[in-house]
Write a structure and sequence with these properties.
heterodimer; A: 411 residues; Peroxisomal Thiolase, Chain A, domain 1; 2 domains; 15 strands; globular; B: 84 residues; Non-ribosomal Peptide Synthetase Peptidyl Carrier Protein, Chain A; 0% strand
Chain lengths: 411, 84
């Protein structure tokens, strides 16, 4: 079966260190991280990646009040992506647009808020908000985006733990290939920093990062890494079939040529390098590429002691003898943006097709010997001979693995 | 509490739940939904805020009394005055 070629034509994002692709990329190349201290209910002071985009650019005040943070992030990213794509959105048939948004979790923020709210009223549930259910349904971020953009095609969320950003893109690609939609708005978002539960959960797990300097707290591969910095953020893309993009002379960021998703089936939280290896190899097979044709591997590594080692083991296995393959990581800059992570981290590398520069992994003062990999880019950007393909890893709890391959576009 | 004071209480609530609306020219005798962008969820917000902020209960069967500022004042003022 001849499969349609699917290309990326627009990018909209908000990260703790940038509210546009150009700002985000500049900060990645200049070593500018975006982690800060914030107060959170029950936890006190925590480290977090906080976004400062203006929700009122695309929403009314009432929409912000009634909706969720994930909804606002999604709307901002979707609008920015559509704008960036240059598509005449007014003229697009809205029933042929799909919105596919990856989320690690949704609903915890509002549930925690409501429990706190009724605690002020002796836990009398008649004070529980009538907004609770529309705010907490799993499709909320996509649904709010469909309302804002007046999209009447399919819009829903993809729950896939921290692999969700990649999964949003993969699902969009599949729906475009099936002919279900003509334009997809897809990627991942996270509002996780507004729930104390995720911080408390990681702390109980011994996986919440601590450091006196917030911008040095997220340190994948460093020997003194001590866990995750939780972040909010989002990255949504416009995806189209190649012929449609060419017909309207769209700017093309890259072509998604390979992907794979599999499951460890071994543990609730501990990753499995064998399955990660299989996932990357399956993505390469779908892309009909050899490992040495990948020029950037963006790691998922979250700075947990074991998780980073497991992924490095898998990458060493797949990318042995690949002298032109560079490896980097984005979480040192932005922390772990959960459902947004895969989509945001891909965005940070997409400009490399044009400038051939590979952004570094930062905060590695002393590389953990167990995380050594050939061509791991540390501290400073490097200029590669060529960047024709990126492999973007994103893994999540309950053992979900994803790998996405994007190629520089050429006819 | 006077009826005018009661109307101001309702307007203050609407200002919170519909922050994009211009409220300086709301006609008290005209239905709120005819002059403001309010939906059924917004009216539930008004009911909730009356409960939270003022301890006023509006039973579901009596929501119709909240249709305009005048009807709100007519219905709610005795309730406010019964609190004190």
């Amino acid at each position: 079966m001849e499969l349609s070629r699917i290309v990326i034509t627009g990018v909209g994002l908000t990260a703790p260190n940038g509210n546009s692709l150009s700002e985000f990329r500049a900060n990645l190349l200049n070593g500018v991280a975006g982690i800060s201290r914030t107060e959170i209910r029950y936890m006190g002071e925590v480290l977090a990646g906080i976004c400062d985009f203006d929700p009122l650019r695309y929403q009314k005040k009432k929409e912000v009040r009634v909706g969720t943070r994930a909804g606002s992030i999604s709307i901002y990213c979707a609008r920015e992506a559509v704008l960036d794509s240059g598509i005449d959105f007014e003229a697009v048939s809205k029933d042929r647009v799909g919105i596919y948004i990856g989320t690690t979790e949704h609903g915890n923020v509002e549930t925690e808020n409501e429990i706190h709210n009724i605690s002020q009223f002796d836990y009398d549930t008649k004070f529980w908000s009538h907004h609770h259910n529309p705010r907490t349904v799993a499709n909320n971020p996509a649904g709010e985006t469909s309302l804002n953009l007046k999209v009447t095609g399919p819009s829903y969320a993809i729950g896939a733990a921290c692999a969700a950003g990649n999964l949003g893109l993969i699902h969009a690609l599949q729906m475009l290939r099936l002919g279900e939609v003509d334009l997809a708005i897809a990627g991942g978002v996270s509002e996780s920093i507004h729930t104390f539960g995720i911080f408390a959960g990681f702390k109980s797990q011994g996986a919440l990062a601590e450091h006196e300097d917030p911008n040095k707290a997220s340190r994948p591969f460093d020997v003194e890494r001590n866990g995750i910095v939780v972040s909010e953020g989002g990255a949504l893309y416009t995806l189209e079939r190649l012929e449609d993009a060419l017909a309207r002379r769209a700017k093309i960021y890259g072509e998604i040529t390979g992907y794979h998703v599999n499951s460890d089936a071994t543990d609730y939280v501990l990753p499995n390098p064998e399955r990660q290896t299989q996932c990357m190899r399956a993505a390469l097979k779908k892309a009909e590429m050899a490992p040495n044709e990948i020029h950037i591997v963006n790691t998922h590594a979250t700075a947990t002691p074991l998780g980073d080692i497991q992924e490095c083991t898998a990458i060493r296995e797949v990318f042995a003898d690949c002298p032109d393959t560079y490896v980097n990581n984005t979480k040192g800059f932005i922390g772990h943006a959960m459902g947004a992570a895969g989509a945001l981290e891909l965005a940070g590398n997409l400009p490399s097709f044009a400038d051939k520069i590979v952004h570094p992994s930062i905060n590695v003062d002393q590389l953990d010997p167990k995380c050594e990999m050939p061509n791991l880019v540390l501290s400073r950007s490097i200029e590669a001979k060529r960047v024709d393909a990126i492999l973007n890893n994103s893994f999540g709890m309950l053992g979900i693995n994803s790998a996405l391959i994007v190629r520089r576009f050429s006819d | 509490m006077t009826k005018d004071e009661c109307k101001q209480v309702v307007l203050d609530i609407i200002a919170e739940i519909a922050p994009d609306e211009e409220l300086s020219d709301v006609k008290p005798e005209v239905a709120l939904r005819e002059q403001l962008d309010l939906d059924s969820m917004d009216f539930l917000d008004i009911v909730m805020e009356l409960r939270k902020k003022h301890g006023i209960e509006v039973p579901e069967g009596e929501y119709g009394n909240l249709v305009s500022l005048d009807s709100c004042a007519e219905y709610l003022t005795p309730k406010f005055n019964a609190l004190v």
